[in-house]
Structures are given as structure tokens and as C-alpha cells.
């Protein structure tokens, strides 16, 4: 039987005060879709859960052309998927949101929570990487911002310190016309973790076309396929020969495991195939 105490602060200040008074066996809950599963599986054993669901300032999704999209810690994945500016400027993020679990689960699950859980198969991680996402945190030492690429340090590990809360993720606006795609391979169409995921963004910049690639479920922490991106830089429409080279470079930057969902070899191969497909479909969206 699970036994724990529950606190439901009404403000961020109150939440931080509660965290400062309590020990290491304290967990912060937003949507709770990962935390509750981990508790049932005896992976974590919190004595106190701080439920953020009453804090209004964490529920916002805002967009400013000069700043970008700011997603509060309590904004659900469905709310992000349905946000008009997300669909216009961050299509790979919307693809990933719609591929996450099912509609009912997405009404509870949050984008920031998915990032904080830092599970390699998390659907929100790769698109936030290709959009240069930055996590906003509050804690005893004040406010700080850290790129998603540095925020996640390993499977189920992040840089949040004792008493800190991740309050939002910010995705800057790309400077130029862009298109993107997130493709996910799973054993079924819903309620399954990714075997492989690929996020791709293409942007027309003053210096030429730029490409970004990142992956889900095939690396212990976020990566960008820099060698593959460099091969594509400045190319308006890559031919099949170049796409094959890019796929090889993408496969070379991942380090998947073998588990019950897929073998390492299968995952590496599918990184190459999905990378080519994501690039083709992103180009079709221009």
C-alpha cells in the first residue's frame, strides 16, 4: 500500500517554501502520469508529494513573436497540440504531442513533466531539442534558465536541485520560414513508448537552409545529429545519395539499448529510415 502526505500549494512561492522545509523524499507532481506509475512500480517512494495543480501561473501557454512559445509546467500536452501558434511555428512539437499516449492521457500529461521525467523515449524531448528549448526553473537561489540539451543528464536524471521547480519551457521562434516533422515508431499506434523517434526541423536562413535532427528512445540523454546536419547545410533539396549519407551519420550518433520493445540493431537501422522519411516529409511541408 502506498502511504504519503500531500500538499497542494496555491502559489509558486508557497510551493517553494514547502520544498525548502522538507527532505529528499519529496516529489513534485504536475500531471502525475509518470510519478504515479513509478510509485506503483516501487521505483520511487516519496513521503511527501507537492501537487502543483492549483498554481494558476503555471497553467499558461503564451506566444510572443520576439520571444517564442512559453509553456507553463501545468500546460497539458493536448493544450499545446491545440495551440494555434504551436501548430504554425512548431509543427514537430505538435506531431510529437499527438503521438503521445492517447487523448485522455494527454489531458493530464504535461510537456514540462515529460521533460523532467527524462525518460529517453519521452516524446517531447527531441522536438524541444530541435527548437532549442530552454527550461525555466525557480528555487532557493532564485531563477535560472538551462537549455534542454543540458537539463537532461541521463535516463530519469536532470539538473534540478533540492527545492527547485521547473516552471516552464521556452521555445524561441526560428529566424526564417521553417517546417518540421516528428516521426515515432512503436509497436502500436497509441499507449506505447517509442521504439525510435526522430524530430526534424528545416529553416531558411539568410545564410542558406539549415537542418536540425534529434532522436527519442535511442540515446541515454538528448543529442543533435551535428554531422548529419552539417552534411545538409545549405542544400535546398537533398537527393537520395545525400539522404543515404545523412542516414548513416544519424545512425552513427545514437547509442540505443536492447529491451522488450526492440533490439539495438533494429533501433539503429530505423533511425536511418525515419531520418530520411522525416526529412522528406519536412520538405513537403514547406
Helix count from the secondary structure assignment: 12
Quaternary state of the chains: single chain
> So, CATH architecture of the largest domain?
2-Layer Sandwich
Alpha-carbon Rg, integer: 19 Å
| Beta-strand share of residues | 15-25%
- Helical content class: 25-40%
Strands, total number? 13
Tell me about the biggest sheet? 5 strands, antiparallel
Q: State mean pLDDT (0 to 100 scale).
A: 96
Order of SSEs: EHEHEEEHHHHHHEEHEEEEEEHHH
Shape category: globular
Structural class: alpha+beta
Give the C-level CATH assignment of the largest domain. Answer: Alpha Beta
Q: Span from first to last CA?
A: 53 Å
Note poorly predicted spans: none
Descriptive terms for the model:
34% helix; five-stranded antiparallel sheet; alpha+beta; 12 helices; Uridine Diphospho-n-acetylenolpyruvylglucosamine Reductase, domain 2; three-stranded parallel sheet; 286 residues; Enolase-like, domain 1; globular; Uridine Diphospho-n-acetylenolpyruvylglucosamine Reductase, domain 3; single chain
Written description of the protein model:
The protein has 286 residues and is an alpha+beta fold. The chain has three domains: 5-51, Uridine Diphospho-n-acetylenolpyruvylglucosamine Reductase, domain 2; 56-172, Uridine Diphospho-n-acetylenolpyruvylglucosamine Reductase, domain 3 (2-Layer Sandwich); 178-285, 2-Layer Sandwich (Enolase-like, domain 1), CATH 3.30.390. It is built from twelve helices and 13 strands. The protein has a five-stranded antiparallel sheet. Strands 1-3-2 form a three-stranded parallel sheet, with helices on one face. A hairpin with a 2-residue loop joins strand 8 (152-154) and strand 9 (157-158). Helix 11 (240-252) crosses helix 12. The model has no long low-confidence stretch (mean pLDDT 96).
Amino acid at each position: 500500500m502506498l502511504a504519503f502526505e500531500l500538499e497542494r500549494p496555491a502559489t509558486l512561492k508557497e510551493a517553494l517554501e514547502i520544498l525548502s522545509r522538507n527532505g529528499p523524499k519529496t516529489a513534485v507532481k504536475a500531471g502525475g502520469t509518470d510519478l504515479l506509475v513509478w510509485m506503483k512500480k516501487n521505483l520511487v517512494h516519496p513521503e511527501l508529494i507537492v501537487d502543483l495543480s492549483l498554481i494558476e501561473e503555471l497553467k499558461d501557454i503564451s506566444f510572443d513573436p520576439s520571444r517564442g512559445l512559453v509553456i507553463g509546467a501545468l500546460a497539458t500536452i493536448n493544450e499545446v497540440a491545440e495551440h494555434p501558434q504551436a501548430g504554425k511555428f512548431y509543427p514537430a512539437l505538435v506531431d510529437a504531442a499527438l503521438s503521445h499516449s492517447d487523448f485522455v492521457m494527454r489531458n493530464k500529461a504535461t510537456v514540462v513533466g515529460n521533460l523532467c521525467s527524462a525518460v529517453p523515449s519521452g516524446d517531447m524531448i527531441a522536438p524541444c531539442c530541435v527548437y532549442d528549448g530552454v527550461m525555466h526553473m525557480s528555487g532557493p537561489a532564485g531563477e535560472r534558465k538551462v537549455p534542454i540539451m543540458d537539463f537532461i543528464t541521463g535516463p530519469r536524471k536532470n539538473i534540478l536541485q533540492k527545492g527547485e521547480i521547473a516552471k516552464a519551457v521556452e521555445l524561441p521562434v526560428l529566424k526564417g520560414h521553417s517546417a518540421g516533422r516528428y516521426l515515432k515508431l512503436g509497436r502500436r499506434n497509441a499507449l506505447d513508448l517509442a521504439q525510435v523517434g526522430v524530430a526534424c526541423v528545416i529553416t531558411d536562413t539568410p545564410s542558406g537552409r539549415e537542418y536540425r535532427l534529434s532522436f527519442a528512445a535511442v540515446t541515454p540523454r538528448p543529442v543533435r545529429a551535428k554531422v548529419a546536419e552539417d552534411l545538409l547545410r545549405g542544400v535546398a533539396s537533398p537527393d537520395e545519395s545525400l539522404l543515404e549519407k545523412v542516414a548513416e551519420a544519424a545512425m552513427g550518433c545514437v547509442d540505443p539499448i536492447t529491451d522488450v520493445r526492440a533490439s539495438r540493431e533494429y533501433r539503429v537501422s530505423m533511425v536511418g529510415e525515419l531520418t530520411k522519411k522525416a526529412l522528406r516529409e519536412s520538405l513537403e511541408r514547406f
